[in-house]
Structures are given as C-alpha cells and as structure tokens.
Write a structure and sequence with these properties.
Organism: Gloeobacter violaceus (strain ATCC 29082 / PCC 7421)
Largest sheet: 6 strands, antiparallel
EC number: 2.8.1.12
Mean pLDDT: 93
CATH class: Alpha Beta
Helix content: 25-40%
Structural class: alpha+beta
GO molecular function: molybdopterin synthase activity
GO cellular component, one term: cytosol
Number of strands: 10
Radius of gyration: 16 Å
CATH architecture: Alpha-Beta Complex
Catalytic activity: 2 [molybdopterin-synthase sulfur-carrier protein]-C-terminal-Gly-aminoethanethioate + cyclic pyranopterin phosphate + H2O = molybdopterin + 2 [molybdopterin-synthase sulfur-carrier protein]-C-terminal Gly-Gly + 2 H(+)
Strand content: 35-45%
Distance between the termini: 53 Å
CATH superfamily: Molybdopterin biosynthesis MoaE subunit
Length: 149
Amino acid sequence: MGGEHFCFTDKPLSIERAYTLTAAPASGAVVTMVGTVRASTGGRAVAFLDYEAFEPMALDVFAQIARQIRERWPATGNIVIHHRLGRLMVGEASVIIAVGNAHRADAFAACQYAIDTLKLDAPIWKKEHWADGDSDWVVGLAVLTEPST
C-alpha cells in the first residue's frame, strides 16, 4: 500500500515534485498526466482560465479516487493529485496526476481513471476567458455562457 499527496495551490505545479512524491522501489512504473491550458477551445481563442474549487469536498473526492484505484489496481503505490486554483495562462499546468504501480498497464489505467473521475466528481470549476472578452463557466462537461454586459 502506498501513500497519497493531494493539494490545491495558486502556485505553479511541479512535475518533478509529483514524480518525487510518487516514485518508490516497488513501482515498476510511474505514469504522470499533466493537464495544461490550451490556446483554443471549440475554435475560440482562450486568453486565460480561472479555477475555483470547494476544497474540503474536492480533497474528499481525491481520497475516494485513490481508494477506488487501490481496489481496482491493488499493486498501486503512491498517488499524487495536485490542482491549481486562480488565474492560469495558456500553457500553464492546471492539474498533475501521478500514479505508481508495479505494472505499467495498471499505472496508465489508474492515471486515466483518476483524471476522468476527477473531472466528473470533484467540485472544481473553471471559467474560460476568451480573447474576444467574453467568458463562460465550464461545469463538468457543460459550458454555461454568461450574458454579455
């Protein structure tokens, strides 16, 4: 059984730190996923994003994800979920997930499970600010368009 490290921060995320927290002698693989702010969504140019979260509940969701990973992939070692909050510019990392496992296929599957489940279940919201000055809240897979003022 491994350990977990979950956090929210308004500081830049570090893939090196996530790897260091995840790597362990029992892990034959460490798979890391870095979500970044892309330059466009749906053909619209992105200026920046703002992330908000209900942190206590989101951290509980992260812990639940880790428990589910350990049940499904028992050879899992350490698990890291780090998420940015606040304003992020194009190219910045918004989330880093790292999973150590004795087997690479299980590490890949667990890492994908973690990001997919986080996006569906964690109370984390992003507001996309478009280059044209408009903005939209993204909730789960839905986009809520704000009226122009």
